[in-house]
Structures are given as C-alpha cells and as structure tokens.
Design brief:
Oligomer: single chain
Largest sheet: 8 strands, mixed
Order of helices and strands: EHEEEEHEEEHEHHHHEEHHH
Number of domains: 2
Length: 320
C-alpha cells in the first residue's frame, strides 16, 4: 500500500486533470452528495458517503443514441462500495456475450471508503462493508493528513507508477489507522440497523412464505420507477427507433406496461406482482443468473420512493 499527503494529492489530481475528465462527489447538504466535474482550482474531498445518483450512469446513459461516439478519457473519484458492487453486476450483464459495444470499459475507477453514512444506508444488513474490497483501479482511504492508496488493477498501477514521486510506502501505523476507521464506521452503521443481518441463504424460502409482506408495503407503491432508476444494480432498458438509428432508454419493472407482450397479454398488469418482482430480481434472479445480488444496500430506493416505502424494512419483515 502507498500513502499520499494532502498537498501531494492536490498535485496528483491536478496532473491527472490535464489528461482525463475527472468527476468526484461534493457535499450539498448533510444528507446529500452529488457528482461534479473537476475544474481548475477546485479540490477533491473524499469524505462522506454515496451520491444521490449512482455511478452506473457514467457507464451507460439513461437515454443513449446507439452510434459510435468519441469518448473522453475519464476518472471517477470517490465511488463507494455499494456503487462498485453494482458495477460488478452490470459488467457481467452488459459485457457477457453478446457484448454491448456501448458500455464504457475505459473509465478509471478510483473508489473511496465511506467515512460517514446516510440514514437510509443498509449495506451491513446484507453482510457487505462500507468500503470496496475489489472492482476498483485505485482505492483511497481517508486519513487526517492524507490517503492510504490500494492498487486494484494494472491500469491503477500504471497511474500510480507514473506519479511515483508523489507517493511513499504506507507505514504500519497508517494501515492500522485505516482499519480502525473502517471498523468504527461499520460498527456505527450496524447500530443504525440495530445489528440486524439478513440470512441470504434462506431468503428465497422466506420470500415464498411471507408474500403478504408485499401486499402490506406494495399498496403504497405509485409505480413512479424512482427505485429502479436510482438503483446501482438495475439495468433494464428498451429500444426505440430514432431518425437514423436505435435509441436506448432506461426501463423499469415497476411500469404497468413493462411485461406487456404482443397481443396485449400482461402477467404483471397489477401492482402487487410488480412490487414483488423487485425483491425476486434482486435476491433470486440475479444470484441465479449472474452469481451476484442485485441489491447493494445503498438505500437510494428508500430516499427516492414517492410512496415512502422502506425497502430495508420490507426485507427484514420478510425474514422475520
């Protein structure tokens, strides 16, 4: 592991900005971080938690003209563990055969540990950590005087090597400080969820036995699609004809017409099966098809829900 002081970190990002477009999270208020593009004279802060919008939209757009594009070299700084896990799922979906030529594979991912968390975050309920363990090019852990940096890919190592004069070997004291900080955030996040953890191995059986939970919470759903649009692991889309080529739009399983087929048949025309499908997709279908959960515990669906449905409560009540 390497260490970079705050002064050298500013020089590092300034150097990278000459070659790359850089996006990073910025605090808007106590419960909100949003993505901003790095401009001259600005400093990047990696403190905080996940942004309002998931990082998936850097990799494919909610409305995308399917033509060959000129792509600018890009770095995303400050992705949190939940977004990294969501991207790992999307890569398996989009980059398996047939490979999607429009899914970005050239973006560098510089993740960062969560130093705080949103009131809706619940990654620890799923057994996950509030930091990335894989799936990044470089990971930055905040310390008082700088950052501990972990290499996660050959591309990340190349960036680090090309700026080697700005980095030094991390000391054992610095490594312990990161472990202590991670542990503290994780324990505090567990307290927010009352220490509860889902038994994911038996969740399928629980879902089948406790379908009444879907009716209890689903009656408040207004099919706005906010939960799927803002989810780092949702990927459904539809294709429409443009003037010269096809256009890809984000779709949602919560729309009434999502499952409609030729002839007018619709197995999910009613609200209850559409609401239930989200849980099935996240915890049954995705693990069976891609080997990964479709939910990363970011809590964005709770924050964005127009029906005020707490997805964390839904999962815990299914288990209970």
């Amino acid at each position: 592991m390497k260490f970079i002081g705050k002064e050298n970190f500013a020089a590092f990002t300034n150097s990278l900005s000459k070659k790359y477009e850089i996006f990073y999270p910025t605090k808007v208020n106590e419960q909100q971080y949003e993505w901003f593009k790095l401009e001259d004279g600005k400093e990047i802060s990696l403190e905080g938690f996940r942004t309002v919008l998931p990082a998936k939209y850097f990799f494919y757009s909610p409305r995308e003209n399917l033509v060959e594009k000129t792509k600018k070299q890009t770095i995303i700084f400050g992705l949190r563990g939940c977004d990294i896990r969501g991207l790992e799922l999307l890569k398996r979906i989009y980059l398996e055969e047939p490979k999607d030529p429009y899914f970005r594979t050239d973006i560098l991912i510089f993740s960062a540990d969560c130093t705080t968390f949103h009131t809706d975050c619940f990654c620890t309920i799923l057994g996950d950590k509030p930091f990335a363990e894989e799936g990044f090019d470089l990971n930055f852990s905040c310390l008082e005087d700088g950052f501990l940096v972990e290499v996660g890919s050959d591309r990340g190592k190349e960036v680090l090597d090309s700026h080697s004069t700005l980095f030094e070997e991390a000391t054992d004291i610095q490594k312990k400080a990161v472990i202590d900080k991670r542990t503290k955030v994780e324990e505090e996040l567990k307290k927010q969820s009352s220490g509860k953890v889902l038994d994911l191995q038996n969740l399928k059986e629980k879902i089948e036995k406790n379908r009444a939970v879907f009716e209890e919470y689903g009656k408040n759903c207004v099919s706005c699609s906010s939960c799927t649009n803002i989810c780092p692991g949702c990927f459904c889309f539809l294709l429409c004809e443009g003037e010269e080529n096809k256009i890809r739009y984000s779709d949602s399983c919560q729309f009434k017409g999502y499952a409609k087929v030729a002839g007018g048949a619709n197995p999910r025309k009613n609200l209850f099966p559409r609401f239930a499908n989200r849980v099935y997709c996240k915890f049954l279908y995705r693990p069976e098809a891609q080997g990964l959960r479709g939910c990363t515990g970011c809590g964005r669906c709770i924050s964005g829900c127009q029906g005020k449905i707490n997805f964390r409560e839904v999962l815990l009540k299914i288990q209970a």
